[in-house]
Design brief:
The protein has 191 residues and is an alpha/beta fold. 29% of the residues lie in helices and 23% in strands. It folds into 2 domains: 69 residues, TusA-like domain (Translation Initiation Factor IF3, 2-Layer Sandwich); 91 residues, Rhodanese-like domain (Oxidized Rhodanese, domain 1, 3-Layer(aba) Sandwich). The strands form 2 sheets. A 5-stranded parallel beta sheet has the order 5-9-8-6-7. The protein has a 4-stranded mixed beta sheet with strand order 1-2-4-3, covered by helices on one side. The protein starts with 7 loop residues before the first strand and ends in a 14-residue tail after the last strand.
Length: 191
């Protein structure tokens, strides 16, 4: 793996979602088809985020190398004929709308990383990190037709999670926007 040749490298250390993806998109826009981008990040959520973004846009996700809590993601830019426009999940609710429903004990999936969840989450929210969502689908099947609210830090990971759930047959999924970065409702912390 030490002989990996990249055409461009971007430093996203210290940045949290959605910034590594924002910078990745900008860098890819400046590259030629077939060139390889290295994204260096410290956010554990970037592992699932970068892969998901590449899959949704048609770029080839080559893999991730982890060294001392540094994640190096490698993506090959697709040919223009392979690039897909990023779909935005259409069923969205605001933070305020979800806050008004908290009395009804709605099913809330928090798709952030465990550390983000520990520092503050909506009471009753179930932690299912985006990178583990595919593995958790079977556990979520009993709720397939129930209203599910999906939350992350900014609405980006939750958008991708809603699309995954919809593809798996979940019929009533809502993306909570803008998510925990602007949440003004009650919060629980793990000690």
């Amino acid at each position: 793996m030490k002989n990996i040749t990249v055409d461009k490298s971007i430093d996203c250390k210290g940045l949290a979602c959605p910034m590594p993806i924002v910078r990745t998109k900008k860098a890819m826009d400046e590259m030629k088809s077939g060139e390889v981008l290295e994204v260096v990040a410290t956010d554990p959520g970037s592992v699932a985020d970068v892969r998901s973004w590449a899959d949704r846009t048609g770029h080839q996700f080559l893999g991730t190398i982890t060294e001392n809590s540094i994640y190096k993601h490698y993506i090959r830019k697709a040919d223009p004929s392979e690039i897909k426009s990023v779909k935005v999940y259409p069923h969205v609710v605001s933070n305020e709308e979800l806050e008004q429903k908290l009395d009804t004990n709605p099913l809330i999936l928090d798709v952030r990383e465990p550390m983000e969840y520990a520092f503050g989450h909506i009471p009753g929210a179930r932690l299912v990190p985006f990178g583990k969502l595919q593995e958790a689908i079977s556990e979520l099947l009993p709720y397939q037709n129930q209203e599910i609210y999906v939350v992350c830090r900014t609405g980006s990971r939750s958008d991708a999670a809603c699309q995954v759930l919809q593809q798996k047959g979940f019929t009533n999924v809502k993306n909570v926007v803008p998510g925990m970065s602007s949440w003004k409702g009650p919060v629980e912390k793990q000690s």
